[in-house]
Design a protein that fits this description.
4 copies of one chain form a homotetramer.
Chain A (H helix, E strand, L loop, with lengths): L2 H7 L10 H27 L3 H24 L8 H24 L5 H21 L4
Amino acid sequence: MTDIAAMLDAYPAGLNGIDQDALILCVQECHNCAQTCVACADACLREPDRADLTRCAGVALICADIVDVTSRTVVRVSGYDGAVVRSLLQTCVEACRACYEECRRHALNHEHCRICGDACHRCAHACRELLATVR
Amino acid sequence: MTDIAAMLDAYPAGLNGIDQDALILCVQECHNCAQTCVACADACLREPDRADLTRCAGVALICADIVDVTSRTVVRVSGYDGAVVRSLLQTCVEACRACYEECRRHALNHEHCRICGDACHRCAHACRELLATVR
Amino acid sequence: MTDIAAMLDAYPAGLNGIDQDALILCVQECHNCAQTCVACADACLREPDRADLTRCAGVALICADIVDVTSRTVVRVSGYDGAVVRSLLQTCVEACRACYEECRRHALNHEHCRICGDACHRCAHACRELLATVR
Amino acid sequence: MTDIAAMLDAYPAGLNGIDQDALILCVQECHNCAQTCVACADACLREPDRADLTRCAGVALICADIVDVTSRTVVRVSGYDGAVVRSLLQTCVEACRACYEECRRHALNHEHCRICGDACHRCAHACRELLATVR
């Protein structure tokens, strides 16, 4: 069992009706995506064709910040507000979609873009799954 | 002129059609709101009636993170994606609304909640004004 | 292989002499620790004995922010500055030490504090290991 | 009076002996510096001579994250730990120093680098002033 799963098991109150498995998967994918986005933006700056990758770096930096705040917000049970969580998860899906679309354009030439795009795709899916359980 | 206004004047490309004055006001209000939310959450933990303020601390921590990432994202012109920015500004309005509603309940008893609630109210307004200019 | 390991393999330049295995472990432990700290702070707010846990929540929130920025900074190869990375890793060790010490005081009564304290302990160790390789 | 100054006046406990004026100035300069660093990194990506500005963008992104977490940490009175605050302020001084040094190299050609470098310089000074009051 991962630490975050054990933490949620030990939580001293209910999880506002949120599905625990969907929550854990969302947190894990958000954190993985945050890592790949920060690293991909940095790698884009170092490529010889960096002029073509400017937008990719910019999109990845935005996505990194949004997935990071999403991963924190969804485990903050005490300040839970359904409208905020739903809106943030939708924003996270958009950010992952934008980064996936941009990374995919460079995936054949740059392995870091391929890995990052795949991470964004999985993260968007996990956010959508969690969103379906939030009231 | 503030530093961020001077930075935007010096920006080497267009601002994707976003209104510069609305952008600057949004960044300033988001940063001010981030400060009050972090400080209000911390102050709530120290009050003798902290049991009543648990939710207020939780909501303020979520709002602090969301206004912070909003203030960063809107100045990231290179990775601009209209759908992402619009969705994030809407999320920011929701987070400020939730924190304002909770802070207002404690504003008569706790000056830090009154100040924080007012900051959230102004921040939500600035986000809505900017949102109206984003395509 | 994890995504971050694959990203670093695909990095288009050297890693400034940093040991890749130590870097990956540090990023993973920082992210795990960020998750447990955010969740532990939130759980502390909900406990019946929250008055005793006020400081634990405060320390965990600080630690969560510092491990988060550490995990981002160490993979940012492009802006590498040895003095900055060393100083930040030392700060991260201090933040984990402070959170571990506080969580340990409540570990017998609160499983979330036990898990979080262990995560901080491992994170501090991973930061020290990485620190030993940074020039 | 700024909101953060009013918040600290309303704080329900002492500030652990930290000088309130130095604290407020540090928070304000950190937030201003966070804004200029995020904007400068983004602007660097868009310049025709972006190859020369790769390192500047990277350093500014690291500095943006570190000043941001510093501004949050110093107002978190509940989880105060002198060793953590001192170490973080020293890290913040290093990050501002690194960004100032890099920005200064491009200040004649790029106004955004000049503004950002000046902001880093003032922020480092404010952190040092606060550091002198932290025990």
